[in-house]
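TA notes, week 10

Several of you asked for a full example with nothing omitted. So below is the full record: structure tokens for the whole chain, then the designed sequence directly under it. When grading your own attempts, check the secondary structure regions first.
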């Protein structure tokens, strides 16, 4: 029978690339027990110690604490159970680190003040329940008591951000900006005004119809003129403007043509507020949706055309 090969603690350290101090610490903790002792009382280790030490270093690199490692080594706990717990803990740590990175990146890009930084950090670290409350408060302020029944149920759903459980940096930054925007009193008033205008031409109790959707009407009527390069103030634009006014007649003050044009122009200027489009873009990032189509080109054209004829 072959005799076991035994190593002194120094030899074990050289074979494994570990310091003597570390091996002694692990040995004292019971993770790498010596196989024998020399006549002088020094610890001696066998090939099993090499394997155990490699495993301990691997588990330490993965973030397991010594107590858990000892239970695994002593077969008190299955490694799979310990790994599952630590993987879940790492998920939490990764999410926290992503949030911190997103806030710090936003601070660096904005040149934020300490007060702004505090607010961004607070918004980024809200719980799911707190985020829902914040969004619900915004949507309630905008759509509450506007229209009849469930007129804006779909609109509210389409304007609800849902930050995923493991958001990337861009999604966190978008959430922080959207949350700040949703708390802006002027922006809330703007969106509420748009919602109130949208209900003006609807039959009470009926769902919004496409022929009452000013944005859809403008997009349908004006896109061909924009694509063709028609100048909004030119005579060539007259038929397009006339057709648009006819399509929107049931939604406007029809006392005279000039008043109707001013009415529509003011409404489109509100709709063309850059904050509205920014909210929708941020929403798409957070929810993982495609970038929404920009209405700015057709709204700019239409506002210019109406101004030229008022």
């Amino acid at each position: 029978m072959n005799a076991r090969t035994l190593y002194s603690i120094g030899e074990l350290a050289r074979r494994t690339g570990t310091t003597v101090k570390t091996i002694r610490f692990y040995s004292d903790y019971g993770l790498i027990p010596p196989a024998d002792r020399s006549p002088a009382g020094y610890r001696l280790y066998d090939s099993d110690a090499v394997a155990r030490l490699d495993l301990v270093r691997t588990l330490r690199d993965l973030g397991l604490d010594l107590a858990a490692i000892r239970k695994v080594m002593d077969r008190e706990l299955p490694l799979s159970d310990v790994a599952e717990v630590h993987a879940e803990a790492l998920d939490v740590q990764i999410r926290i680190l992503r949030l911190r990175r997103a806030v710090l990146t936003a601070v660096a890009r904005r040149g934020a003040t300490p007060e702004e930084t505090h607010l961004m950090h607070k918004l980024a670290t809200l719980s799911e329940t707190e985020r829902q409350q914040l969004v619900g408060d915004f949507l309630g302020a905008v759509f509450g008591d506007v229209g009849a029944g469930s007129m804006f149920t779909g609109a509210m759903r389409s304007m609800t951000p849902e930050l995923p459980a493991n958001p990337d940096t861009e999604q966190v930054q978008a959430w922080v900006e959207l949350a700040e925007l949703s708390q802006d009193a002027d922006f809330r008033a703007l969106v509420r005004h748009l919602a109130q205008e949208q209900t003006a031409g609807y039959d009470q109790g009926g769902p919004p119809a496409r022929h009452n959707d000013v944005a859809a009407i403008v997009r349908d009527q004006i896109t061909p003129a924009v694509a063709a390069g028609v100048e909004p103030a030119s005579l060539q634009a007259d038929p397009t403007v006339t057709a648009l006014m006819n399509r929107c007649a049931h939604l406007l003050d029809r006392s005279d043509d000039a008043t109707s044009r001013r009415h529509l122009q003011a409404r489109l200027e509100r709709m063309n507020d850059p904050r509205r489009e920014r909210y929708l873009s941020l929403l798409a990032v957070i929810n993982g949706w495609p970038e929404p189509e920009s209405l700015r080109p057709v709204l700019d054209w239409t506002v210019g055309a109406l101004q030229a004829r008022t």
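Strands lie at 7-8, 36-37, 43-45. Use that as a sanity check on your answer.
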